[in-house]
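Reviewers of the previous submission asked for a worked example of the structure-prediction workflow described in the proposal, so we include one complete record here. The input consisted solely of the amino acid sequence. No template or homolog information was supplied to the procedure at any stage.
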Amino acid sequence: MKKYILIFTVSLFTLITSCGKENLDLNPFDSVGADVALNTPSDFESAVNGLYRQMIFGSYGASMMSFPDVLTDNLIFVVTGRQTQKTTFEWLYNANNTQQGFMSQSYTVIQQANFILENIDRIPDGAQKNNIIAQAKAARGLAHFMVNNVFAK
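From that input alone, the workflow returned the following structure tokens.
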């Protein structure tokens, strides 16, 4: 009997304290939607600056600076060193060991540039809009070019 009373009490408590649908639609705390993100010219300028930040810390980071030289034997690999570019130096690529981080960061730049270009009509025509379009297209083109240089035959 106590078992049934406990089940009934828990069920009743759950029914009484459950929330309505209005409490289930929450916005994320770490991002904003597309309708809020890019509305003013300064928003677009910040987005373009984000492209450059992504390129500096992603595509053009420290490993990318040395990556081509390690591939072409312009740098000497030190066996007693940190061995950060050993896979690149020895050409030991496989499905689990590639320059995947470089590729995903490059495609993040491409995706962000496309997002800027898709929403650019929210600001008025003029020199600032043309400048933002040019920078987004240049960053996207450069990211495609770098991916091609690293991974194409």
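The two ends are 75 Å apart (CA to CA). We consider this example representative of the routine output the project will generate in years two and three.
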